[in-house]
Amino acid sequence: MKYIIVPVLLLFSLQVLSQECSPGYRITIGVWFFAGTILSSLVTAWLTVGYIAIKAAIANPVRSLRTE
User: Fold this and answer.
1) Count of domains observed in the chain
2) How far is 22 from 3, CA to CA, in rounded Å?
């Protein structure tokens, strides 16, 4: 049943989107928007991983082994 519903819903949604999205409502998104998004997500990931790596490097291994 789901193999029939998915294509039908896909065609329906594409038809609705093509009717309701007239050229007056469309905007152009430049490459810089995507580049900024990718760059900000990479910086966030680097900061997060860096923080965890520095935190692990500073930690005392003897203390962590005692608590295990």
Assistant:
1) 1
2) 31
